[in-house]
Amino acid sequence: MPAPSASEIENLASSALQSAGLRGENAPDLAKALGQVCGQAFTLFVTMAMVAPGIPAAASPPPGAGSTVGPGMLLPPPAGGPGAAQIEPLALAALTAQNLNGEQKPALAKAIAQSLEKALTLFTLQVKVAPGIAIAGFTTSSPGSLVGAAPAKPMLEPLIQGFLQAEGLRGENIPNLAGALAQTLSDALTQMMSRLKVTPGIPSSPGATAGPGRLM
To answer: What angle do CA 48, 7, 190 make, to 5 degrees?
Structure first.
């Protein structure tokens, strides 16, 4: 599966929380909850992700053979991935499953959901479909690769801290939590990018792809 699993993300989160100095008794439970919700959100992303039509192509008729010659774009959420409204109940359920039931649980779930939506949106803006996908019979005939880079921790951290603070989460550990969540998302998205391919079968005209594509 191209999306990192819950256990893989849990390991990333556990390391990020420790590096941020968050080693309290609830840290392992939080890492497990983050692994669960991020794994579910990324699986949804892979299912929903869409490559926009219009990738530049050179396919001479007949027989409609050639390749794409320019980069392709990914559609951002909510069209091309889960939005915060879809992710929030998953986050709430993940926190509940790990008995993280403090009064700030709904606020934390909302901030996690907003952080995931923003991270996925930035992913779709920064990551492109690489040129060079083979075309035969006016249809892409080979898997495509992705190029670019997943959003890095320094980009995500201030955004996530803003989401946490907007939900009234302002304790002394909030900056550290924002850093740990930013590191987890950046690492997990980087993993996911390395595994994703563009599914063959995108219709093409002589000059550009003529329909949407999917990821696999």
So the answer is: 55
